[in-house]
Amino acid sequence: MKRNIFAIAFAAVLAVTGNVRAEVSAAKAEAFVKDVTNDGIENIINAKISQQEKDARFEKLFNQALDLDFIGKFVLGRAWRTATPQQRKDFIAVYRELNTKTWSKRFDEFKGKSFTFKGTTPSNSANQIFVNSTVAMDQGEPAKVIWRVKQTGDTFKIVDIVIENVSLAIAARNEYAGFIKNNPGGVEALIKNLQNKVKTM
Amino acid sequence: MIKKSILFPVMAALLFTTASCATTGNTNPHEDNDSLESYNRAVFKFNYQVDKYVLKPIAEGYRDITPEAVRNRISNIFLNMKEPLYFINNLLQGNFKYSGISLSRFAINTTLGLGGMFDVAEGWGISRENSRFDQTFAKWCIPDGPFIVLPFLGPSTPRAAVAFAFDMAADPVYWATLNDANVKDKISYTYTALEAISLRAQNIELLNELERGSVDFYSTMRSAYLQNRKNMGCRDDENVQTYDFDFGIEDEDEIFDEMEAE
To answer: Cβ of A139 and B248 within 8 Å?
Structure first.
């Protein structure tokens, strides 16, 4: 009998500790991503407004929803360490602009589509969680889209998007590492190249 | 002309040799296993030209002259021919229920679906259970080997290349044409070319977008390709999320130290 009470008490302690460790609120994180995608689809893609207004709304939503400073720092990889403060600033600025413009265009591909949310998966990184979703494609199987969400206090931010197992943050990090490795101009050349890309978009 | 029936085992043997020599000692999740980088970049450049001047124009032309409904029918025929492949691989992975599904889908769609043009089985709630040799080898925990870009075929690894050869051999078109010397090459080359064009037509936008935003398209493709493969998982670590890398700035120094130590 005593043993049973011990077992229950032990289980209760474990449960409480477990809850304390899981700092990220799964329900809130999922609701956050749902809101962002709904907002994007209803108030931008499907809204009857000018393209200019669409772009402006998208830029605002995109910059609010994503932590682009955090992502930018990560994708520059080891080059971040050796970059000067000015280079860091320039890189983040151009990275932000490049992504805003690229995704503003790609976002239209989701016209008439909707995300089906499939719960969350814990992450090994502190204060982070994965929100799972799928989106129907014109042909073939639905695509798997996973949102990596970081919680700071009551604020949620998307820090990575994983499409069919491909993390966009890792892909960008490898891309920039590849560029820097093959270019004597290093980070400076990378920033220049990205700035030129943004100009022609 | 080299007989294809000879070519296949030779190619498979060659690739197996490459696979067994391949080093897989890359443990850093942030860096891709690319010991053949300079060779790969050269072949990538070559493939890119082939794609730009041959495959892409054909795929675009194909999209322009065929209505979407027709394209879907054609892509359905190719997909139906893959059911025997799915059947074998579901079996090899021990998914008996799925292999039964693949077999019944092939029977239903080949007959009632008019040679696979229509997916009748899907309408009955029997959905495709796609499974290829690459997945089977992954489940069997066969190591992947280094990243390698193959002429015409594109990004690959020794394991993926061997699996691809097996996939081709499991296609009914390959078997049907194997013993008839006159039609064999014509039919199967046309078939392979059509299949490549149909697939390319489906991916045009996606690839355009990837390329436009990238400063080093080779690295982007390699990263996307290898990330996708890592997640195929071997039986022992099916529940490991490979995209759950250490993503905290405070841990970053540790990652860099690890990378520099290599």
So the answer is: no
